[in-house]
Structures are given as C-alpha cells and as structure tokens.
Amino acid sequence: SDIGSQKDRVVTEEEWLQKWEMGNIGFHKEQGHPLLQKYLDVLLNGRSGLRIFFPLCGKAVEMKWLADMGHNVVGVEVSEQAVKEFFSDHSLPYCEEPVPEISGAKMFQSTSGNISLYCCSIYDLSSSMVGKFDGVWDRGALVAVNPCDRQRYASLMINLVEKNSSYLLVTVSYDPNKHKGPPFYVPESEIKSLFG
After folding, report:
1. Which member of 79, 86, 119, 179 has the lowest number of beta carbons within 10 Å of its beta carbon?
2. Does residue 86 form part of some domain?
C-alpha cells in the first residue's frame, strides 16, 4: 500500500473529543462545503424527501441546509459537544433520549423531527437501528477513520445504503509520508477496493 507511515496510525476517541473541547476543529466549514453544492444534483438525483446520512457529522451546516429542503437527515458523531453546538448554532430546539441498543449512547432529534443525530461510535450503528439511506455525504469521515478500520467502515456504509443510493465522498490527496493524518490519505485504488 502507498499510504506510507500512516498505515498503523490510530487516533483514539479521546483525541477526537479533545479536538472539540480545545476548539481544534479546522475541519469544520462554517459556510458548508462547496463540493456538496456543486454535486447536489448527483446526491438527490431528482428525488425529494430523501433520508441522507452524515457519518462522523460534527456540526456540519449542510445537515440543516438539506433538512430545510425537505430531506430527513441522520448523523453520527462521537462528540456530544459537537452535536449540541450544531443545534445551538442554528437555534434549533431538540430533544435528547437514550439509545436502548447502545450503552451510553444518546440520540438528539430536532423537534421538527427531520434531523436525528446519534452520539456514539459509528461502529455501534446498524441498519436495524437507523434504517437505510438514499444518500450519504461523506465529507470527512473516510479520511478520519483509522486506516486499520477502513474495511469495517466501508462494510458498515454499504450495509446502511439502499440499492439506488448516491454516495458523495470527499478525500484529500497529498504525500502521506509528509503528514501523519488525519485527514488520512486514501488512494483512489483503495476506495475502489473498499466500495467496489
């Protein structure tokens, strides 16, 4: 594999939580991601009222944008701070409830019901719990997942999508020997082998 020194790099859940606590969230885009706007038609494919999944969602502003268009948005994020900031940043009222299937997990749902954010490890989710999705916006998830967990991540994502779903994936290209990640370098060949 040409991912160099990143192959064995592991970022712990605690490190991600610390990034949020310290405000070290350079990956968050206040204005939303221009590539989602550019490829929105590919994601929606002329359909309305879709279920759209945001893996490792942080407090992505695109969740509200798509919900305002009439779609149902489901996200998963390990940082409760990020989830709560999403709702407060947009002045959205929400309710919070435990997720019976996952010890310690919580689900935060907008009172309008069209945004549901799970606060837990993404690997604790399953399609029996959250259903299947018509679209995925993977803006910083695959590149944030530890390289050793990519196969597990891809298998989960494949399990969470409907047959005719659209999966938008953003990666970054650079020399992986010069940056330890995250974001991690995921070569196109690996994306093809992960998702087929």
Report:
1. 179
2. yes
